[in-house]
Amino acid sequence: MRRHLAPTPLLLLLLFLLLRPGIQGAKVPVVCGHRRMLNRMVGGQDAKEGEWPWQVSIQRNGSHFCGGSLITEQWVLTAAHCFSNTSETSLYRVLLGARQLLQPGAHSIYARVKRVESNPLYQGMASSADVALVELEAPVTFTNYILPVCMPDPSVIFGTDMKCWVTGWGSPSEQDHLPSPRILQKLAVPIIDTPKCNLLYSTDTESGFQPKAIKDDMLCAGFAEGKKDACKGDSGGPLVCFVNQTWVQAGIISWGEGCARRNRPGVYIRVTSHHNWIHRIIPELKFQSGRTDGH
Prior knowledge:
Blueprint: H1 9-19, H2 28-31, E1 41-42, E2 45-46, E3 55-60, E4 63-70, E5 75-78, E6 92-96, E7 109-118, E8 132-136, E9 151-152, E10 163-168, E11 185-192, H3 194-202, E12 218-221, E13 229-230, E14 238-243, E15 246-255, E16 266-270, H4 275-281, E17 287-288
Parallel strand pairs: 9-17
Antiparallel strand pairs: 1-13, 2-11, 3-4, 3-6, 4-5, 5-8, 6-7, 7-8, 10-11, 10-14, 11-12, 12-16, 14-15, 15-16
């Protein structure tokens, strides 16, 4: 006959903590960065349904113009240069859970925008601090197709040659647009260290032009030979890396000279550089720590 052991005080405490209503606030670190569905991109390939559940389309007057990433139930991370007018929030909406722009499908939802917070240090295209936060009018419900990506704290190092992924609905080249129904594109890109990236951007510059500098809060990723890159319409979208079995956002698509040109890799805003600003706007946001394990 099986004996029934009385629960120990430690077990009772654990049960209390797990069942306490307030514990739900701690869910995000567990939920973020884990894709549940597993089955502007030049040289990329079609993403699968639910493969990048944090990817969003930011739309103005019903048309896609920038990408972004869901980081909590109510906040999206994107680029400041996407918003010249942050007060006209009624013009904007965010599409979540979609793979195709023109036929988003039953798993997708549209969310209204409550406010846009652009980093006050941003000073125009190709400048530092090209980062913005978009607050949705109401929290979204997480599903297999709508999940947040994890935010890294400053202890996370994204090393040179680490393979990461960039996603978006941008143009496949400087001249062309994605054919209908405009399927989300994904592209694997290696991290390029800043000295090498500065060297690439200083080669083949037109005479009389000052080469663009890669600032401290920027990150380069891509290929010196060109041919594969983010492009127009991808701006604000995420560069994500697999860190300790979790997808963590390393960068925000910011700028580049043309698309997929030789010696002109994509330039991203480094998310860890703006940890304090993001935390100030969203105090409840949990950040992922730890060392990288390239994937």
